[in-house]
GrpB family protein
Amino acid sequence: MRRVEVTDYDPRWPLLFEQEAELLRGILGENLRDIYHIGSTAVPGFTAKPIIDIMPVVESLSETDCLEEIFRQNGYYTHGESGIPDRLFYTKNVEGVRKFHLHIVEAGSPHIIRHLAVRDYLREHPGARREYKGLKQSLAWEYPYNIKAYIEGKHEYVTGLECRALRWYRKRQS
């Protein structure tokens, strides 16, 4: 059973993202359009589960599906869509500890703007970071070995955060 761990920001997270992104560029090749560091580890100074979330954006998910063996050889385990349609989800452990989550989506997916909006909103809004940090720490303390309860406990807050972030992001883009 994995412990729900929420830690202070680690300045090595962007470097870990860049190193892993380089590996993924080699695996995905010409199918790769963009690659983003998303999630809490992509927000400087923010509290996070110490797992780097990476969102490769590809031309074709079905072409990516054919690379499952190469992903496995590079330490990634596939979870299929894992409850989110039109996404391929992979995890990677390093020395027995979960270190990376891949959220592979096709170009044009609505998941792209959603993740980027939340990431950028948290980067720009310290009040939202403080609020969300408190919730995450409280839930990790309350449910130290129940990741499902931790995620469910954040659901309502995250839904509201996404709505605020999307409005802010779209206004900023226009």
Summary: Residues 13-173 form a domain with the Beta Polymerase; domain 2 fold (CATH 3.30.460.10). The mean pLDDT is 96. The longest strand covers residues 97-106.
